[in-house]
């Protein structure tokens, strides 16, 4: 199955179903996709995804059941042309309901079909770390074609998850800061772990309906970019998400050491909010901007296509280990 994910060519779904691992999973797109595919007229597809999603007080959610798809394990061996393969897009390979032996089989296929590059993202890095260390999996060195990644959404999830990734035996380690739903203080990671990571993929949230998506504060995105520059990691800015930045609502330094003017609230509409650096949203707009220390930015709901992926005037699509300067 080809994928619309820009940094990958092929999706290799070996499990289906999951359960939310944190606030960053709130608008999990795989839940909607699993529900849709559970109603597919093709009984083969419907039998894989049917019944994995239920409706409760908070809307749609996973039931917690995880189904394995052993019949798909062999696919990478049959793909002749080298591809970038995203492993398990409709679940989390290290979910507690995926048996150890099955994860081992997945790694066995990746070992054999080594003409592809595999990208694995998890929100359960502790299990990934424990399994890979326990197996002594990489006795002759980690596979260079298997890139291990951990998803974070804010500083709290960074603290909870990144150390496991940093210590995980892997040739390439990727931080996926997407959807970014809060600030991350990168100083510890750039100072003590700059050699441990190789790329940060970051971006805002897309959701259905659009208005449910949480906006990405421009300062969070710029902080991630600066961290990449400081540590020498590749920077991949994936998207703004549904909300596009329309301008700061605080005095910006004009570059000559003097504070500039607070930009006027122009073009504000029903689809416009003011977002503070702590993620809080001010609604409706008011004339007097909030505390400048909270870096309020005006954001507009325009849809992810229109919001695009340009940051500070350019796009960032750097591969792991890229060592580029701004
Ligand atoms: S870990 Fe991934 S697949 Fe599972 S609920 Fe969270 S976002 Fe969805």
What does the main sheet amount to? Answer: 7 strands, parallel
What's the shape? globular
Task: Give me the count of strands.
Answer: 15
- Show unreliable segments: 322-326
Q: Which ions and ligands are bound to the chains?
A: iron/sulfur cluster
Task: Explain the overall architecture.
This protein has 326 residues and is α/β, with parallel strands linked by helices. The chain is built from nine helices and 15 strands. Strand 6, helix 4 and strand 7 form a beta-alpha-beta unit. It starts with 9 loop residues before the first strand and ends in a 19-residue tail after the last helix. Bound molecules: iron/sulfur cluster. Iron/sulfur cluster binds next to loops.
Question: What brief labels describe this structure?
Answer:
326 residues, 2 domains, seven-stranded parallel sheet, four-stranded antiparallel sheet, 9 helices, 25% helix, 20% strand, disordered C terminus, binds iron/sulfur cluster
Write the layout of secondary structure elements.
Elements lengths: L9 E3 L2 E2 L12 H10 L4 H7 L3 E4 L2 E4 L4 E2 L6 H4 L5 E4 L12 H13 L4 E6 L2 H11 L10 E7 L2 H13 L4 E6 L9 H6 L6 E5 L14 H14 L2 E6 L3 E6 L23 E4 L5 E2 L14 E5 L2 H4 L19
Parallel strand pairs: 1-6, 6-7, 7-8, 8-9, 9-10, 10-11
Antiparallel strand pairs: 2-5, 3-4, 12-15, 13-14, 13-15
Iron/sulfur cluster binds next to loops.
């Amino acid at each position: 199955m080809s994928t619309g994910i820009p940094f990958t060519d092929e999706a290799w779904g070996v499990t289906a179903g999951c359960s939310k691992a944190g606030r960053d999973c709130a608008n999990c797109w795989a839940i909607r996709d699993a529900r849709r595919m559970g109603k597919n007229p093709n009984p083969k597809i419907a039998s894989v995804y049917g019944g994995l999603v239920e409706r409760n007080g908070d809307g749609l959610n996973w039931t917690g059941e995880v189904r394995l798809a052993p019949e798909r394990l062999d696919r990478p061996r049959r793909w002749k042309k080298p591809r970038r393969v995203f492993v398990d897009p409709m679940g989390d390979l290290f979910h507690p309901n995926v048996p150890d032996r099955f994860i081992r089989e997945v790694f066995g296929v990746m070992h054999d079909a080594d003409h592809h590059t595999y990208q694995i993202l998890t929100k359960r890095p502790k299990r990934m770390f424990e399994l890979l260390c326990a197996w002594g999996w990489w006795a002759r060195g980690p596979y260079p074609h298997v890139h291990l990644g951990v998803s974070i959404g804010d500083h709290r999830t960074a603290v909870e998850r990144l150390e496991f990734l940093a210590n995980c035996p892997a040739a390439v380690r990727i931080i996926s800061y997407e959807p970014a739903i809060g600030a991350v203080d990168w100083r510890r990671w750039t100072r003590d772990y700059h050699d441990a990571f190789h790329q940060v993929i970051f971006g805002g949230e897309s959701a259905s309906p659009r208005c449910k998506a949480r906006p990405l504060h421009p300062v969070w995105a710029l902080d991630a970019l600066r961290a990449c520059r400081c540590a020498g990691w590749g920077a991949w800015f994936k998207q703004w998400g549904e909300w596009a930045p329309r301008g700061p609502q605080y005095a910006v330094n004009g570059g000559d050491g003097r504070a500039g003017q607070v930009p006027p609230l122009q073009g504000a509409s029903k689809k416009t909010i003011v977002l503070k650096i702590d993620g809080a949203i001010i609604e409706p707009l008011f004339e007097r901007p909030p505390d400048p220390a909270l870096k309020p930015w005006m954001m507009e709901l325009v849809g992810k296509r229109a919001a695009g992926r340009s940051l500070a005037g350019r796009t960032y699509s750097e591969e792991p280990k890229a060592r580029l300067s701004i």
